[in-house]
Amino acid sequence: MSIKLYNETSFKISSQITKNYSTSFSLAINVFNRELRDSISSVYGFVRLADEIVDSFHEFEKQNLLEELREDFYNSVRNKISINPVLNSFQITVRKYDIPLEYIHDFIESMKKDLSNSYYERNDYDEYVYGSAEVVGLMCLKVFCYKNEKLFASLIPSAKALGSAFQKVNFLRDIKSDLNERGRIYFPGACDESMISNLNKTELEKEIEIEFETAYAGIKKLPKSSRLGVYSAYLYYRILFNKIKGLNVNELFSRRVRISNFTKFILLLKSIIRIKFTKAFE
Fold first, then answer.
1. Structural element, H or E, at residue 238
2. In CATH, what number is assigned to the domain containing residue 39?
């Protein structure tokens, strides 16, 4: 029996993690071809693993676990294999698509910030969002462009904007759980609940609007193999964002805004129709 079976199983495990933790991304990923689907699932699996260490492993030494994850990843790249299936699938993707190791470094560094920071001033906030979200967009862009460095370079601003917009929408959606369960505030300069207001909510929403516009311009230039999947994820977050914009801060503290699975499926169908039958993406 060859290593092929183990590698295939590794990607399937990362895919299952994606399905278990995010129905919206699972739907988007499912419209990619098999190769892209596996690769993007491996990125999500790695990111999810780090997130779980930070957000869920409360009875364990999180700092040590993050450092172990980082070291195990670097070892997997050097050895071209890992006995951790999530890391194994991810290292295959990193090597195949020449994903810079600095992206992984910056991502882990942002995850470490969540272990000690309960709020962020503006400069630190921007640095955190870059490491926790923008570099994930860049990892995915590396996969989508598959060594077309000219295309990759031209789409860097859009990929960073999309990752940032997704993250900031999550900040707004999860404002209650971030504060009550994790003791964190993701509004620049707000250091306690009393400083979270409709005013700074509106300011964050203005940033998100600009980032969505930048992201959309880039989505239209993506290769056809990835355009539909990225656009459907974009559309989902736009709908979620519009629902959040219609609520005030007190309402966000009282409930978590959700999009039903049926609505997600309809959005995917709309994405398919728009891309295939309109001139917007030509």
1. helix 224-245
2. 1.10.600.10
pLDDT top residue among 267 and 99:
99
Q: For residue 199, is it within any domain? A: yes
Q: Confidence class of residue 275 from pLDDT cuts 50, 70 and 90?
A: low
Distance CA 222, CA 151 (A): 8
- Residue 101 CB burial class (10 angstroms; 0-12, 13-18, ≥19): exposed
pLDDT digit string (tens) for 97-130? Answer: 999 999 999 999 999 999 998 889 989 999 999 9
Q: Which domain holds residue 200?
A: 3-277
Gap between the Cα atoms of 216 and 8, Å rounded: 33
**Domains: count for the chain:** 1
Neighbours of 182 (CB within 10 A): 15
**Model-level pTM greater than 0.85?**
yes
Distance (Å, whole) CA 33 – CA 223: 12
Give mean pLDDT, residues 249-255: 89
Q: Is 190 helix (H, G, I), strand (E, B) or coil?
A: coil
Other residues' Cβ atoms within 10 Å of the Cβ of residue 61: 11
pLDDT for position 279: 58
Q: CB pairs under 8 A, 24+ apart, for 119-123?
A: 119/184, 119/185, 119/187, 119/189, 119/190, 119/191, 119/192, 120/185, 120/186, 120/188, 120/189, 121/188, 121/189, 122/188, 122/189
> What is the mean pLDDT of the segment spanning 239-268?
82
Report the phi/psi class of residue 211: left, alpha or beta, with left for phi > 0 and alpha for psi in -120 to 50. Answer: alpha
DSSP H or E segment with residue 270: helix 261-277
In a domain, 282, yes or no: no
Query: Does residue 198 lie in a domain region?
Result: yes
